[in-house]
Amino acid sequence: MRLKDLLEELEYECVGGEPDREVGRLVYDSRKLEKDCVFVCISGANFDGHSKAYEACKKGAAAIITEKETEVCPGCDTAIIRTPDTRRALALLSAAYFGHPSRSLRVIGITGTKGKTTTTYLIKSMLEQTGLKVGLIGTIEAIIGDEHIPALNTTPESFVIQEYFKRMVDAGIQAVVMEVSSQGLMMKRTDGIEFELGIFTNIEPDHIGPNEHRDFDDYLRCKSLLFRQCRTGILNADSEHVKDILKGHTCKVETYGIEGEADIKAVNINYVNQPGVLGVEFDTKGLTELHAFVPTPGLFSVYNALCAIAVCRHFNITGSEVEKALSTVHVRGRIEPVRISDSFTLIIDYAHNAMALKSLLSTLKAYSPRRLVCLFGCGGNRARSRRFEMGEVSGRLADLTVITSDNPRFEEPLDIIADIRTGIDRTGGRYVEIPDRGEAVKYVIENAESGDVIVLAGKGHEDYQEIKGVKYHMDERELIMNAVKELNLEKGCAL
Hints:
Elements: H1 3-6, E1 13-16, E2 26-27, E3 38-40, H2 53-58, E4 63-66, E5 79-82, H3 86-97, E6 106-111, H4 116-128, E7 134-137, E8 141-144, E9 147-150, H5 158-170, E10 175-179, H6 182-186, E11 195-200, H7 216-224, E12 230-236, H8 242-245, E13 252-257, E14 264-274, E15 277-286, E16 291-294, H9 299-313, H10 319-328, E17 336-337, E18 345-349, H11 354-365, E19 372-376, H12 384-397, E20 400-403, H13 413-425, E21 431-433, H14 437-446, E22 453-457, E23 464-467, E24 470-473, H15 476-487
Parallel strand pairs: 2-3, 3-4, 4-5, 6-10, 6-11, 7-10, 11-12, 12-13, 13-14, 18-22, 19-20, 19-22, 20-21
Antiparallel strand pairs: 1-5, 7-8, 8-9, 14-15, 15-16, 17-18, 23-24
């Protein structure tokens, strides 16, 4: 590969050496320096890659990409390329290094404070049900065909994204849906990606503080960058900040919503309480007109479904195909129903902070259950305040709270449980304490009453429990199945 070809879309100045030369690997981690590599110097919060420029020279790097003056070996023939922003440079160089794979994919980017993860899986599942091969990059994992790669960041480093894209193209994948975080946008990780669709779900104050966003305005600004990078933007019209998100946009705009004017609007919304399943049905009017049933509860399920419907329109998926897909799709660990009885409803959800738990329990209360039972714990070595807050939320909204263990990490489970109890005691809510999560799951199933809604909160998609630095396998679906077998329930567990 020629260096000048890598640099083709980059704004740069060659301040040393010759840019028309053959080069090897693209590297941004100084621990991977090697002869003939192109080393991109990234200035991070705790480490500045420019400090390794001299070492890169000594190891025979073909080129060094910098954004400021750096010390290099005297007389070396390494090409020194100066550019205004090496994070953006890494993104553009990575796209070129892997052959601009996003140009061969239909890329869907989703940004927002809440709903990104659920909506990515929802869209992926719906598109796949119509025969498309779809990849995914998000908070939980990257999915390339049958391969599932655990995620370190919601939006990976630009080099990693482009590598995933290349592997997806090689695997015959046609479309990819990815979560686009404000951090990812701020750090230029998505520069160089050609998004066909950009999606905005909602925004609330979050990720504000040291090493994140300085204030809410900066958070908004970073979210808005996606809509200068996509061909069509699909936005939640009911968000009070939608106009701010669209400042400076360069894309076509479509909207979905419930309350006000929107290009695709949900009407005739009806909550559905069927044996063992809570859902919602509605009609749409506007750019797409159909009747939808979604087997997950609440208005946010309507918003997620509207978003997916809007995306499907761009893939020429028929209304009947959309209706069928929506009626069967489930997202692992996000209000995931596990049907083991027609007399009560059992749900697994990832809610692991007070805001998420309040939203979840408030949604479930709208279905007027006989009792709302909430089983949860809190992670160790995390903010203690979360335990008091979640205890208060469950104490106020649930009819019974079952306090158990989550990921205790290096703390004692009983200490964490005591903090949660302190929060519940402020409310006078009923609770029981069962530290062993398997026994707690068995307890709520054994003591379920007709008409109950039982939610297992906090673990969601996770299939492990972390104790003293070790991750032990633990999947709540298996805990449920074990309880069903032990209790000899007449109805089998549909897992």
